Amino acid sequence: MASGSRLEDDTDIVQDRVADIGIIGGTGVYDPDLLKDSRTIEMKTPYGQPSDKITVGMYEGKKVAILPRHGSRHTIPPHKINFRANIWALKKMGVSRVFATAAVGSLKEDYRAGDVVIPDQFICWDRGVHTFYDGPNVYHVSMADPFCRDMRDTLIRAAGELGISFKDRGTYLRIEGPQFSTRAASKMYRQFADIIGMTAVPEAILCREQEICFAVVATVTDYDVWADEPVSIEAIKSVMAQNLKNMKSILERAIRDIPLDRGCECKDALKSAGA
Fold it and tell me: What is the average pLDDT across 40-65?
């Protein structure tokens, strides 16, 4: 399939929908034991290899695919993730909704370590171009509201029902990494956003281009270095271990509750985006 063609035109997709819902798991979230009757599938894409094999199976009567963003052994750094291959592979399998998890730093005092955040906006502070449409087909998709409204509502409702401390909105600022910010940059970023991370924004853009609904469950691991507390991997892993249970509980409830029929704008993102 040539780059730039719409995936919906590939009849293999509608003939064999392996999964309806995708989970892109970040640090510590990859858990194939969540699924019943699971198996792994190795996908090939026009954009190279996805991060790893994709585990597919059933959860609460729904077909789910789990893709470890950094590889199952966490060997792929943020700047080396093949985002296009990951999203293309999920689309090819029939996925129409993607829940992503993300460990993030906080840029604001009231976004504390351990908090769950369901972001509603992002700023992409990198030098890359993230698109499937390099030509000859040209699409300019709207990113005004980059995270799926219906999926965000489901995640917010799940967190509330579970009694988990969470923020129902927030602006995610994406940097390329793999380094953390300087103090000066971190203080500048505070003017624009609430949380900071390295992965969710390319995924959001590419999912919108493929008319996939996308939302993020972010967990705060630390105050970024604006707070004069240098970020360490050890500290992040400690907080992540505490966050993991909440994140999984929210995802499991949301997958159970989300309807497969979509009433949001995501599914029609290309209709008015063609040049």
Answer: 94
Q: Position 161: which residue type?
A: E
pLDDT at 2 over 60: no
**Over the chain, what is the mean pLDDT?**
88
DSSP count for the chain of H helices, then E strands: 6, 11
Q: Would you call the peptide bond into 178 cis, given omega within 30 degrees of 0 as the criterion?
A: yes
Q: Which of 20, 222, 257, 268 is catalytic?
A: 222
What is the per-residue pLDDT for 230? 61
Report DSSP letters for 72-133, one per residue.
TTT---GGG--HHHHHHHHHHTT--EEEEEEEEEESSTTS-TT-EE---EEEE-SS----S-
What is the pairing mode between strands 121-124 and 171-174? Answer: parallel
Contact yes or no for 216/100 (Cβ under 8 A): yes
| Whole-Å CA distances, 48 to 45, 52, 201 | 5, 11, 20
Q: What is the pTM of this model?
A: 0.89
Q: Is the pLDDT of residue 235 over 80?
A: no
Q: Write down all domains in the chain, each with its CATH number in brackets.
A: 13-268 (3.40.50.1580)
Active-site position among 110, 120, 224, 268: 224
Residue ranges of the alpha helices (H) in the chain?
11-15, 83-92, 149-162, 183-189, 200-209, 233-257
| Active-site annotation holds for 224 | yes
pLDDT at 14 over 50: no
Q: Which amino acid is at 12?
A: D
Strand 54-59 versus strand 62-68 pairing type: antiparallel
> Does the pLDDT value for residue 193 go beyond 90?
yes
- 110 is a catalytic site residue: no
